[in-house]
What we know:
By secondary structure, this protein is an all-alpha fold. The chain is 66% helix and 2% strand. It has one domain: dinb family like domain (Four Helix Bundle (Hemerythrin (Met), subunit A), Up-down Bundle). It has a two-stranded antiparallel ribbon.
Amino acid sequence: MTQNLRMSAITDHARSMLAYNHWANGKILDAASGLSSQAFAEVRETLAHAVGTEMYWHGNWTGREFAEPNVETLEDLRRLYEQADADLAEYGARLTDEEWARSEAWWKRWGFDGQLPVGPTLFQVIFHGIHHRAEVAVALTQHGRSPGDLDYLVYLREQAAGLP
Length: 164
């Protein structure tokens, strides 16, 4: 029996947003590369929290165990973000409408038994990343290391122009 794996505009958009997330993470990490150790310490925990959230939710969706990341250096962050972005891209590539709608009690381990579908939690990961990148972008700018424009429309324009 052949299963019809449907993909829709929402799953296509989810893949676009995951690719945007990767692009924006790269811009933040590139801007952080010139920070002093004291300035890096100001943004390290926020960046570690953001990538940890990506890893946590990917683990929920795929059944992987999650371990809180240990981050000391920018290189640690780059490795974690590369892995998280690759995992999310792979997950997004096989995202179907059925997976988008799959619902589970994601927070049961913390005593909350409510259920949510994958879709809203996937977009929560994206919005969570946007929120924390904005916080980090302010700190980077204050240290003379602005990541530049992180708008989704800038990402789309760059993609349309064939820019990396």
